[in-house]
Amino acid sequence: MSVTTVHLVRHGEVENPDHILYERLEGFPLSERGERMAAATGEFMASFAPFQNVAHVVSSPLERTRQTAQIITDRINTFRQTHHLPALVCHTDERLIEASNEFRGTRIGYGQGALWRPKNWKLIANLHKPSWGESYEHIAQRMHEVVLDLVDAHPGQQVLAVSHESPIWSLRMLLEQGSPEHWMFARRTALASITSLSFDCDSHELLSISYANPAADVA
Fold first, then answer.
1. Is the CATH number of domain 3-212 3.40.50.1240?
2. Beta-carbon neighbour count of residue 208 at 10 Å?
3. What is the Cα–Cα distance from 121 to 126, expressed in whole angstroms?
4. CB of 70 within 8 A of CB of 78?
5. Residue 197 predicted with pLDDT over 80
6. Which region is the signal sequence (predicted)?
7. Distance (Å, rounded) from C-alpha 62 to C-alpha 28?
8. Using only C-alpha atoms, what is the Rg of the chain?
9. Is pLDDT larger for residue 132 or for residue 212?
10. HSE of 55 in the Cβ direction (CA atoms, 13 Å)?
């Protein structure tokens, strides 16, 4: 049986001093701490098999995910160079992008983002099935599609895909529970964490899910 593992990595901390809901907005790169978080995850991946054997790297097109992917890839490439392996190159896929959100550009709890406003309260009436933007079902389905495409394109290999909290967790809930709906405050997808999904290449059966948080102690 041939097995492909897709390692879904969440981006590192973002530079956001005004606490804006940035969603898909441009101009929100990694903070210095976020860069250190990505570096910690990259060092972790460069230190252990099977991460060292990643054959393909892809990320959401947003700046923070591209930065995270590049920092991690640089660490893995340092290992690969010393073992005379070809260098990895980062690619992007729109389907890995952050979920759309009607609150984008606002500061949650203040002004137009204040939850006490009637129009906003209606949007968050059911946090399991959000009405403020892209549904969990749509998020999970596009993530599932890109992951299975990666399985088909890289049979028997390791793949790194850098995305965002909501897309990663929505897909995990779909695969584990059969439904992507969840309580948003109970997600287990820390910054720069790794959620690894292993699939049978022929049947697309999910074989295992594992989780690692190499950047947990980064200050």
1. yes
2. 10
3. 10
4. no
5. yes
6. none
7. 9
8. 18
9. 212
10. 11
